[in-house]
Amino acid sequence: MNALNPRIRVVWVVRSLIGALVLGGAAGGIAVYRSASLTIPVGLTALFVGLGIGHAVLRYRSWQYVVGDDALYLERGVLTQVRTEVPLVRIQHVDSRRSAVERLVGLASTVVYTAGSRGADVTIPGLTPDDASDLRQRLKGLAIDADGEDAV
Amino acid sequence: MKLAPLSVPYRALQKAGRLAISLVFLGSVGTEIGLSRTLVIVGVGGAIALALGYEFVYYQRYQYTFTDDTFDIRSGVLSRREREIPYGRIQNVDISRNVVQRLLGLSAIDIETAGGGSTEAAIRYVTAEAATTIQNEIRNRKRGDDRRGTVNAASTTTDTVAGDDNPTAESDDSEVAATAAAGSAEPDDELLFEISPGELALAGVLSFDPRVPGLLFAVFTGSIPFISPVVPEPDAVATTGLDPTIVLFAMGVVVLVGLVVLSWVVGAVSAVVNYWGFRLTRSETELRYERGLLQRYSGTIPFAKIQTLTITDNPLKRRAGYATLAVETAGYAPGQANDRGSEAAVPIASRDRIKRLAAEIDGCEEGSFDHPPKRIRRRYLARYLLALAGLTGLLYAGSVSVTGLADLPWYLPLAGVVIAPIAAHYKWLHRGYRLGADHFVTRNGVWNRETKRVAYHRLQTVIDSRTIFQRRWRVATVIADTAGSLSLLGNDAAAVDIETDDAIALRDDLRDRLQESLAERRQERAAGSSTQIIEGPADELSAVEEAESVDDDSETAAVNDEELSTLDDDEISAVDDDEISTVDNEGPAAAGKEEPVAIDDDETAATDDDETTAGDNSETQPAENGSTDE
Fold first, then answer.
1. What's the complex ipTM?
2. Which residue ranges make up each domain of chain B?
């Protein structure tokens, strides 16, 4: 099983920070408007930041993936643990992409598409750009090898 | 070939109608700000003229042709578009005609392919005859493709894996056969199902449209000022000497009853209109349905594209011995976006008929279900009780805080405490899954009991998830994702709340069976056509090619000739599934095991894995290989 790149935690923490700041800002705005004390908004923001960091750490620990002989296998989730198995024959196409935050820390994601409705967007985050494009190439190769079926 | 000439004025009026409505609206606003009436009239006239001109050019430009292996459409006035749709990729062809179109002799055709949420090609208005011709032509050409496969298969039964020496010559022959078949217009369809007047009436009676209350709510919240005069003012009520809360309560009851009756009437009418004259027929390779009173739908569903069958019933239907059947394909559900989203749904019929029909379509056998562990009933009970407690608390809070609601019977939901254990028990009882010979079958639902059947080779992704609560109860959910259109609503076949160990085993099992059935299908094709396929439908026949993996080869070698010859029959035809299932049982046996599949699957998987690891190591990354099972 492969773990993600540890730096993905930074991405997740930054994302939750943004969320926490927006929430905290809104709460702070209300507090200022009603001229109440700022302790509650600050406390809330701190709580969310703490939760976000904790979640990111646990999420990183729970994330694992492996490209098997005939399937891509992923395991993830903090509150709800999800294990997904994507048969290589079913892969329609593979993307690798980089969001702004990901670019900041030099990471990329690989997205695997199937014709299925739920597995339609299996995303593997936290890869170095090289790894991401390697993975994309490899999955593409395996998918072509395994082809012979309609992917539906 | 071109569209029907009448489609020009029809489309133009359709388009101009929309334009005119917005113009009239503009005009009604415009007259107030000083636009003259004539200007509006000129505008509407201009819109119609413009639309006519545009549609004429559209008609001139629109061209569809049947080539040897694709259906081509060239269209577009300003931006031009050329499409080639391979016959093998076409999921279904649907014809629909509403009342006006029927009067004008026009038909709309929708051609669906898998993938994407929209119709691949919408041919807007050909003549009725042309529509049937297109439908038959596509069917015949598809069948031509399939038959090419089967002809090859038949002719190579003797030398099976050894391969056919001259596939080119053979497919040339069958090409001729196919075109000959294409010439004969009406194929011999076997009637599978025809709705009886009694069933149609029952379907109407049992249909309740749950969207009506929501719709009315949306409409009425937008027009509060409109209904507020109807709601009696507290002062006015006070003069009559009645208690305002009682009046309010009575009005609420009236509104509620009215809503229910209205929803039911709307549901009944739409069901009758939708399913009027419902017929399901089968030809060699596909299902064909017809239905509809005002708008007539007819469509085809190739057997090879069927994803999931769903049989639904509820206690009332079960008592009366009725059930509902839905067939899902990977295409987008046409003309039914507002309906139940299924291609061909038998609204209601006696359970026996449904069972026979379903078996005829997918060849899945009946059997018993594995239930979740009994302890899980306590969880369901706790969940129901929590929900009841929450509702009661909410009502209580309301009755305390809002003065007008002081007399509210907030304790009413507590009556549900009596029902909760029963519901919990039935929830457990209805839940279950079964690994059939060729199908994964799941059942869920307290009131509406849904049985879903997915053929192993239709599985897409297998997902096994456990929420934090499920982990406390040591259970997990396994979801078998397919490309079905209903699944977009999250209605996949799911084995919910089964033991964690069972879940892991089930996931592995499903993966192995998917691979097995794919390998089987590959063999069939390998037996039928050798490495170079001339022009089979890409999805059914392609790519047995260079990429046969090591483990496939070993399996091919293991399976002997007789088995292959039983398989040569058209794999699509569902009736033959018995044969396929015998092969399914022998597959593992050939690998040296004697027990039935269900038991020794793990072991087979293990040996398979070993083989592949041994064979594959050189090519794939050694570090990760075979560690999928952790």
1. 0.84
2. 7-142, 197-275, 376-427
